[in-house]
Amino acid sequence: MARLALHLDLLKEFPNLEKPVRERVGEVFAKFEEATHAGLHLEKITGARDDRFRTIRIDQYWRGVVLAPESGDTYTLLRVMGHDEAYDWAKRRKASVNLATGGVEIRDVAALDASLPHMERMARSAPERLFENVKDSELRRLGIDEHTLPLARVLTAPFQLEAARGLLPPVQWDVLYGLASGMTPEEVWAELGPAIVEDVDPHDLDAAVRRSSDRVLLVEGPEELMSALAHPFDLWRIYLHPVQRSVVEASYRGPARVSGGPGTGKTVVAIHRAHRLARTGGRVLLTTFTSTLADALESSLRLLAENDAAGDADEVLSRVRVEHVDRLANRVFREAHGGLDLLSPQRERQLWEQVLEELGLDFSPGFLAEEWRQVVLARKVETAAEYLAAKRTGRGRGMSAAHRARVWQAITGFRALLAEQNLWTYETVTEEAARLLGEEGSRPFEHIVVDEAQDLNPGQWRLLRAAVDEGADDLFIAGDTHQRLYGPQVSLAEVGINIRGRSAKLRINYRTTAQILEWSLGLMRGQSVDDLDGGADSISGCRSEMRGAEPVLTGLATWQAELEHLVHTVRSWTEAGVLPGEIGVAARSNRVVEQVVAELDRQGVSARALAKGNTPEDEVAVGTMHRMKGLEFRCMAVVGAADSKLPAPKSLTPEVEDPGAYARDLMRERSLLFVACTRAREQLSVSWHENPSPFIEAILSP
Ligand SMILES: Nc1ncnc2c1ncn2[C@@H]1O[C@H](COP(=O)(O)OP(=O)(O)OP(=O)(O)O)[C@@H](O)[C@H]1O
């Protein structure tokens, strides 16, 4: 039976078509199966380079370009264009099968043929070629075919490869880009996705289309067609990169992790994986760090489930609980003990002071609070002997045994006060919840999927470990340690989670343009960042396939001038058609956020501060860099990136007091700027007054 498939490029351009045309496309293809029985009217194209391209009439003016294989019965709708443009587009192109991935590829052979002689001439006088150290056989193994090879051989510099992007099928371009950016052939091979087991027949286009789930959606009937056409922006629901798909579908023998730079689809993968695991019948917890992000996960999961052709949304959703990790702790605690009295930071400080006074000790309350959290709670230290032997990595100067004994005395006194007065902190609630779950015979979940994993603290990891039995597909962890804003550095092995040999990395950024991504990655260059597992992580190789404007960096004399510049920037975006709700403004502090909202309001630009549980939809969203975590905006302005504000002086432990803590605080401030900048999809403006932040200064004048 004839099957309709939708190519990714079609859905990308679909929202730009006018509504009556979009509706007409739906009508034409909703009847596709019946029409093919009765003889579907697909026009042949005279003078075509590939006679498998056909057109189909949408209305008097519009045509669909369809790929119709000689054998098989899958028809792929590639584009919808005006009559002349459609014929021209189709005449210039050829379809082929990638021998490494088995997927279908389409390329503009006319443009390739026209460019090659010129590039060959240029290469003759060049001292070296870009891929001279890579053998033909290696390139072929990676799917570079005989049409691409001559071009690859005459490239002499990365900028030429950049310019040749439109001439090559995206997967082949990506392979060359990976090699040009220093990846080994093995690394590039791993990026192509799981190896295909069957032999690839280069002439069997039908099989190739069926294998191309990263670019082609095989439509299961009119309902799925309508759902895909109704949400053309949500491409993540439909097309997964082969590496994303393999991570979503894999069966792991234990905890597994996916990492990757900003915008590489870690959240997308987490949502698909939770959906898939729920479908197998298990109870799933989909969790993250904040309540706002948990709400976003929940609505995306719903969208995915409700538009799935299987029609089992209610059943699947009933098996998934979506809640942030503090809420899980709170719920488990309350179910066992009822209400709880949570200690405010001021009250906590008073308690530390009380203990110090009673014991006649001379420490600062801040030091003790940190020692308790980062050493005692993080390492689950329970006795004086354990504390004496505990590692205090990153806690500054060493302490003598006598010194430690006094600190332990203070911490024990503090805990006694908490117990006496039945007072709790987030950390002790989490610790108690983990203990309760550990005691219970049955665990509440069969699978846990964690997003924004880099921000969880050891206590939260222990809670999650206790909430699921050890076994296949128990914990799935998505995160990027370059974006750590809250949690301390954690080694998963130390909290009983062993991910060795079960980790994957995503490298293609689907959010940001290459220009914005490249600039933002510069903020992190040279920084050493852990990988949650005792090793080092890197975001090298993270790249975007989208092109766009360079980030705009502006230094002004005063804060007032910077505010005026911001108003001007936001206005220029709205005048260009960007909706206020598609614009984000990030600042380091709440005070600056308030000033920005007030100024935008005064200038007649409707704006609102991002707050807990509040993501404005039709107003410019202004928020602290912390609040920007996990969000994205078409246009993003980062303000107040001045040396007096970023790093925020109050957030840095003095270097003389504790060099380790200082380095960690500094890294967190850098990550804040990195997170804020990588929220942009199309435009990024970064501004400061007086002197730029040292994080920016370093890339302004490397
Ligand atoms: N396969 C895909 N096809 C199309 N769009 C995708 C795909 N994967 C991800 N995206 C889109 O890319 C953007 C970033 O995805 P996502 O938020 O999952 O990335 P992330 O790695 O979690 O980002 P961050 O770490 O920066 O928060 C989203 O708009 C998402 O819809």
Automatic annotation (TrEMBL):
The record ties this protein, via Pfam families, to:
UvrD-helicase, UvrD_C
Q: Which UniProt keywords apply?
A: ATP-binding, Helicase, Hydrolase, Isomerase, Nucleotide-binding
- List of residues binding ATP: G260, G261, P262, G263, T264, G265, K266, T267
Enumerate the spans annotated as UvrD-like helicase ATP-binding domain.
Answer: 239-513
- Single GO term (MF): hydrolase activity
User: Can you state which reaction this protein catalyses?
Assistant: Couples ATP hydrolysis with the unwinding of duplex DNA by translocating in the 3'-5' direction; ATP + H2O = ADP + phosphate + H(+)
Q: What is its EC number?
A: 5.6.2.4
**Which top-level group of life is the source organism from?**
Bacteria
Biological process terms in GO annotation: recombinational repair
InterPro entries given for it?
DNA_helicase_UvrD-like_C (IPR014017), DNA_helicase_UvrD/REP (IPR000212), P-loop_NTPase (IPR027417), UvrD-like_ATP-bd (IPR014016)
**Mind naming one GO cellular-component term on file for this protein?**
cytosol
Protein name in the entry? DNA 3'-5' helicase
